[in-house]
Amino acid sequence: MDDQLPKPKLYRAPFWVMLIATILVAALHIWTYNTLKNLSPAAKRSLDSTLNLYIIGWPVLLLGETVIYWLISRKKPQKLYIWLHVSLIIFIFILVPFVSILANAFAARIYRPEEYFAYLRKISLFRTYTFWLFLVIGHAFFIATIVKSFTKRKVTIEGDEAAPGILDGILDEH
């Protein structure tokens, strides 16, 4: 029994962080949907068709990434890339919307209506550009993590280079 190889140390912290982030994103999206659909029946009809990606798509995508982190936890993944991806996901899906809600509530109290709508437009553009920019960057790190996790590592054995092979003498002559 002592001859068994030690089990590889699992690196599951990103899995748990992504799982919590996925649950928070799903809860935030469901809350947003319920808040918007209560505005009017017309808003509910238009929201039912347009927000399916928002409510279902993003949490499902994040859940898929979470499962991938579970699967690669044994493969000694690139930790820096993982944490950059996870941090950017948390930033764009949780922190930016939360800060935007607080900023909008604050701005509604200090701006006149015409200034407030100009402010909302700027904030909306900022959120859109930030979201897509950081989403692309984060997923570049995610793809790099997957590639590095499934790339075969070269294994070198000490003393192997110095030991002559059986055919080394014959091959050197030709």
Account of the 3D structure:
The chain is mainly alpha-helical and 174 residues long. The chain is built from six helices and no strands. It has helices spanning 13-37, 41-50, 52-71, 79-110, 113-150, 168-173. The two termini are 47 Å apart.
What are the SSEs and their pairings?
Layout: H1 13-37, H2 41-50, H3 52-71, H4 79-110, H5 113-150, H6 168-173
Estimate what percentage of residues fall within beta strands. under 5%
| Approximate helicity band | over 70%
Profile the largest sheet.
none
- Give the SSE string: HHHHHH
Radius of gyration: 25 Å
Separation, N- and C-terminal Cα atoms: 47 Å
Contiguous helical run count:
6
Structural class call reads: mainly alpha
Oligomer: single chain
From the spread of the alpha carbons, the general shape counts as: elongated
Nearest-integer average pLDDT: 81
The tally of domains stands at 1
Taking pLDDT < 50 over at least 5 consecutive residues as the criterion, the unreliable ranges are none
Total DSSP E strands: 0
Please supply descriptive tags for the structure shown above.
mainly alpha; elongated
